[in-house]
Write a structure and sequence with these properties.
By secondary structure, the protein is an alpha/beta fold. The chain has a single domain (36-387), classed as Alpha-Beta Barrel (TIM Barrel). It contains 15 helices and 11 strands. It has helices at 2-35, 47-53, 83-88, 118-124, 130-133, 135-151, 163-174, 198-204, 234-246, 257-266, 290-298, 309-312, 317-331, 356-364, 369-387, and strands at 37-38, 58-63, 91-98, 157-159, 180-187, 207-211, 249-251, 272-276, 302-305, 336-338, 347-348. The strands form 3 sheets. Strands 2, 3, 4, 5, 6 and 7 form a 6-stranded parallel sheet that branches. It has a 3-stranded parallel sheet with strand order 8-9-10. It has a two-stranded parallel ribbon with strand order 1-11. Strand 6 (207-211), helix 9 (234-246) and strand 7 (249-251) form a beta-alpha-beta unit. Helix 7 (163-174) runs antiparallel to helix 15 and helix 13 crosses helix 14. The longest helix has 34 residues, at 2-35. It is globular, with a radius of gyration of 21 Å. The N and C termini lie far apart (72 Å). 50% of the residues are buried.
């Protein structure tokens, strides 16, 4: 009897173990597939657009790929980004954002900050336990992931932290080297956990850009999707000053109108809006008003236009070109670029390997070759280089 009981217990334990393994292996992939989709939009890429695309240095200011349990060095059939697809798309630089907290029922209108879905994801992904309870540690884990990907990329991925890094990256690409730069950003400075000195820790980990708020108001700034939607807090004003002094670029994406106005009134260096759209072509509350577009341009900054429904009201790359054309007509060609929001729980009409769809849309809209080069990467690379400081 004891023998049969032991066998039964062993079988139950084996089944439970197998179920647990299956859960922690399959569930992260299922979540990733469900959140980051491609609904292919058919675009005929002309020979002229193909030829131009083959010479571009593409730069994109926003992707959330580090949030997911995915090897970015290997080609994947899920999500929007991995190194092989970036190489196919002629990317010179991809900014990778650290998302550390996301409220339940997240929406564009009003979210409280008292719930969080990223904690569950951290546990399901079996991230280090330190990330389960600390937003700061989640960002440091994302930085560690990017550095590890670069280390095992055989020189094809580099972490960019200084102007010299950008210069070297572009020179090596010009000389025929296959290499992509990755820069670290933060989506909402709630990961400071209320302590301004944590900026130094994040900077040391490689972060060079940060959005003030994400989908809820925090102790730095109001969010466009928060409840109060206030401006910069006293801590927020100190944070902006510290960021400018240390060479960390201020990102206005998701910030409330009041917070955007506060930053633009005090900025002494170029600021960016890394991903989104403009209300003139897609009237969604998260998109920039014309006055805000003018304000970003006055700092010498750049606006990244996204590829998803909430940014341009369509998955059609022609809508991306339409938003870009509006910014160009309003403030000039030097202040607009790409901010895909790839892997940001978004659905897009193409992934990184299909970025030529945007090149084609710009060409079809009458943009000159020189202006297309600026939009597809030149403007972003120029502004990021100006915003960083030498070590």
């Amino acid at each position: 009897m004891r023998r049969w009981l032991s066998i039964g217990v062993a079988l139950v334990a084996a089944v439970l173990f197998a179920s647990a393994v299956r859960f922690f292996v399959v569930t992260p992939e299922r979540i990733d597939r469900g959140q980051n989709k491609v609904q292919r939009v058919t675009v005929d890429i002309t020979l002229a657009a193909q030829a131009l695309q083959a010479t571009l240095d593409v730069a994109d200011m926003h992707a959330d790929s580090l949030l997911w349990k995915r090897d970015l060095i290997a080609r994947s059939d899920r999500g929007h980004i991995d190194l092989p697809r970036l190489i196919e798309g002629r990317y010179a630089l991809q900014v990778f954002s650290s998302v550390t907290k996301s409220p339940e029922g997240q929406n564009y209108d009003a979210n409280a900050g008292d719930t969080d879905t990223i904690t569950n994801l951290a546990i399901i992904d079996l991230q280090p336990m330190r990330t389960w309870f600390s937003l700061l540690q989640r960002s440091l884990w994302h930085a560690e992931k990017l550095h590890n990907f670069a280390d095992k990329s055989a020189g094809r991925l580099r972490v960019i932290t200084t102007p010299v890094d950008i210069d070297r990256l572009l020179a090596d690409r010009k000389n025929g080297m296959t290499v992509v730069g990755g820069m670290l950003s933060i989506e909402g400075l709630h990961d400071l956990e209320g302590k301004i000195d944590n900026l130094d820790i994040l900077y040391a980990a490689g972060f060079r850009m940060a959005g003030l708020a994400h989908f809820f108001d925090n102790d730095v700034a109001g969010s466009m999707h928060g409840v109060a939607k206030g401006g910069l807090t006293p801590l927020g004003r100190q944070v902006v000053q510290r960021m400018e002094a240390m060479g960390m670029i201020v990102d206005l994406a998701h910030a409330s109108h009041a917070a955007v106005a506060d930053v633009l009134a005090m900025a002494t260096r170029p600021v960016v809006s890394s991903h989104g759209g403009v209300q003139a072509t897609c009237k969604v509350n998260r998109n920039l008003t014309d006055d805000e577009v003018r304000g970003v341009a006055r700092t010498g900054g750049v606006i990244g236009v996204g590829f998803w429904q909430g940014a341009v009201c369509s998955l059609d790359p022609n809508n991306v070109a339409r938003a870009i054309a509006h910014v160009r007509d309003l403030v000039g060609i030097d202040h607009v670029g790409l901010g895909s929001d790839f892997d940001g729980s978004t659905t897009t009409g193409f992934d990184a390997s299909g970025i030529a769809a945007v090149t084609q849309a710009l060409m079809s809209s009458g943009f000159s070759e020189d202006d297309i080069r600026k939009v597809m990467g030149g403007n972003v690379l120029r502004v990021l280089r100006a915003g960083l400081v030498a070590k």
